[in-house]
Design brief:
Order of helices and strands: EHHEEEEEHEEEE
Low-confidence stretches: none
Oligomer: single chain
Shape: globular
Number of helices: 3
Strand content: over 45%
Number of strands: 10
Mean pLDDT: 89
Radius of gyration: 15 Å
Length: about 190
């Protein structure tokens, strides 16, 4: 379902469900990041839901769950001050990440990919000059780095929360995915 006009990046609080038919195949990113093929397939068949709690413009908490047997959920903390912080993720183990508000035009070609194509992908679908959330995460062992750009885009005639993600491994290979989320209601 399309998001109401009251929902924007400055007011994401609520429940969002991954729309698989409008999203890229995100399971390719999971296996690229070292998640087992079996687990990635299980997640691919699950219903993925985000419960977002946003505290002003400085902190966003995302509880992610998947309705598949044996798949535990994760909670992501985003402090939008561009400071590196460590965490432990249920899927990926030791991680470091940082996030911030940034004008879409200031993203350039991205922090991870670096090509014109990567920059166009990260900025696609959002208005010029619009502020977006940019998040970087790194696996502590250095095997991959991911860049997320969040926006609210018009997709298939409705406003939807999106995450555009580029992951680069230590060999320099990259994968891209756009995840599109439908509004489900307030938490």
């Amino acid at each position: 379902m399309a998001a109401p006009s009251s929902k924007s990046l400055t007011n994401l609080s609520g429940t969002w469900k991954l729309n698989k038919s409008l999203s890229s195949d995100y399971t390719q990113i999971l296996t690229f990041q070292g998640v087992s093929t079996l687990t990635a397939k299980a997640i691919g068949t699950a219903s993925v839901t985000l419960k977002i709690a946003q505290v002003g413009l400085t902190h966003i908490e995302v509880e992610q769950s998947a309705t598949a047997a044996g798949i535990s959920g994760t909670t992501e903390q985003y402090d939008l001050d561009w400071t590196w912080r460590g965490s432990k993720d249920a899927f990926f183990g030791g991680m470091s990440g940082r996030s911030r508000w940034v004008k879409k035009n200031d993203i350039g070609n991205g922090e991870v990919g670096g090509t014109d194509e990567d920059g166009a992908f990260l900025k696609g679908g959002m208005g010029d000059g619009e502020e977006v959330v940019q998040a970087l995460s790194r696996k502590r062992d250095g095997s991959w780095t991911a860049e997320h750009v969040w926006g609210v885009e018009d997709v298939e005639g409705g406003r939807r929360y999106t995450r555009r993600v580029i992951v680069r491994n230590k060999e320099g290979e990259t994968k891209r995915v756009r995840m599109v989320y439908d509004w489900q209601g307030e938490n």
